[in-house]
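Standup notes, protein team

Yesterday: finished cleaning the Streptomyces gamaensis set.
Today: GNAT family N-acetyltransferase structure.
Blockers: none.

Input for GNAT family N-acetyltransferase:
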Amino acid sequence: MTGADGLDITHYGPGALPVIRRALLDIYGEVLADRLADPFHSVTRFGERLAAHAALPGWEVVVGYDRGRAVGYVYGAPLPAGSDWWSRLSPGLSGAETAEDGTRTLALYALFVRRAWRGTGAVRRLHDELLGGRSESRVTLMVEADRPRLRELYEGWGYAHVGDQRPGPGPGGAVYATLLRARERAAASGS
């Protein structure tokens, strides 16, 4: 479907990853070109995370195309029952707020748009397109703490900062702001 921003939007499930993987990695490499020297941000490491995410039940990616060229995407999957997503969060949330059953919370793992498409509304359209077809009651994502403008963008879309964490085991690595948005707010704002 083509929108006012000129994008053709396509939804893909995990079975399509072999077909679209190269496009997703190319966009990632372009968007994070200034961070690729960091082993965590390398295209190889991202490819590993992409494969792991795509193996999760309910994984979906929405890709925007301009004249057949992929220009951006967003993907996510429901947090599985017993997920450790919330376990390193500081300050912590209550047990009721972190209990996952595999259907409650959609985790957005990646949202990237090529530079030429920034400021066009494409990133919001991709985000809203993914959420529009989902049944989870809330959505969460992480943003590197050193990217305050990106965090402000998401907060402008109704996300609330619920704490900070370092994903993965061990004390090293970047600090991430963890954001959460109830889908009721998403529906009310037109998502």
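Follow-up from PR in the comments: The CA atoms of residues 28 and 35 lie 11 Å apart.
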